[in-house]
Design brief:
Elements: E1 5-10, E2 15-20, E3 25-27, E4 30-32, E5 48-49, E6 56-61, E7 71-74, E8 81-86, H1 91-98, E9 110-114, E10 117-118, H2 121-130, E11 134-139, E12 141-150, E13 152-154, E14 160-163, E15 168-170, E16 179-184, H3 188-195, E17 208-212, E18 215-216, H4 219-228, E19 231-240, E20 243-245, E21 248-250
Antiparallel strand pairs: 1-2, 3-4, 5-12, 6-11, 7-8, 8-9, 9-10, 9-11, 12-19, 13-14, 15-16, 16-17, 17-18, 17-19, 20-21
């Protein structure tokens, strides 16, 4: 079943409301609860969706006579491989035909380890390219949507100033699906993170920003929209799925 987390943050007034996930607990300046969206809510609720598939799983592939495994990836955040597409035939296609749908490799999965190599995308890619067989550790992709409000700052003389800085750094030459967060500095996003106790609702280094409002469809388009956005907007992220245990959420997922 899907679990959803709804959040809203007003950057000018420094407040937010959160509903969802059915595990009551206190957060900074708010609560998390099982309640639905309040009546009359004017914004599109944000969601943290966990797909009904295992958050992590392991795959063993043999290349055999094929030239590759039929798996196309991007180095994404420099620590994992992000699956961008799958070949119609080859070892991965054969594997997917033999297993239940919830264990099939899919576009958007994160490869976090290959034959013991982890923490470095180039090292994982080397194993995936050259080793036969290869054992892959996979984390599913989840999508996180935050509702933020970016306003103009007020100058000392009371006049309207510049837009509040976002405080997010990304690669100088972004490519592929979105913008990988390289650093979170002072600004709207850091203010959001400071107020949120639940790590699943924070913006983390390694997250990939794939949409700003209705603007999606590639890193350059997302970068332009993010630089120009004002007012209330939706920020869409993807990341490797966290893993839950009996004690609750395991924060280690954000370092993959």
């Amino acid at each position: 079943s899907k679990q959803r987390l709804s959040s809203r943050f007003d950057g000018a007034q420094g407040c937010f409301t959160v509903q969802g996930d059915c595990r009551p607990r206190l957060t900074a300046m708010g609560t998390v609860c099982c309640a639905g969206d309040p009546a009359g809510q004017s914004f599109e609720p944000s969601e943290l969706i966990y797909h009904p598939r295992p958050a992590k799983y392991e795959v063993t592939l043999e290349m055999g006579a094929h030239k590759s495994y039929g798996l196309y990836t991007d180095t994404h955040d420099t620590t994992t491989l992000y699956v961008t597409s799958l070949a119609d035939d080859g070892p991965v296609a054969a594997y997917n035909q033999q297993v239940e749908p919830e264990f099939q490799l899919a576009r958007g999965d994160f490869i976090v380890e290959a034959n013991g190599a982890s923490g470095n995308a180039d090292a994982i890619l080397d194993k995936l390219t050259n080793d036969d067989p290869v054992v892959l550790k996979i984390r599913r992709r989840i999508e996180v949507t935050l509702i933020l409000d970016r306003k103009r700052q007020t100058n000392e003389d009371g006049t309207e100033g510049d837009l509040q800085p976002l405080g997010v750094e990304w690669s100088e030459h972004p490519k592929a699906e979105g913008l990988v967060v390289m650093a979170v500095n002072r600004g709207l996003i850091a203010d959001w993170n400071d107020l949120i106790l639940d790590p699943t609702s924070k913006v983390h280094v390694g997250d990939c920003i794939v949409g700003v409002g209705s603007n999606k469809g590639g890193a350059l388009n997302v970068a332009k929209a993010l630089e120009e956005v004002t007012g209330t907007f939706q920020l869409s992220l993807v990341r490797a799925a966290p893993v839950f245990n009996d004690a609750g959420f395991s924060c280690s997922c954000f370092s993959h």
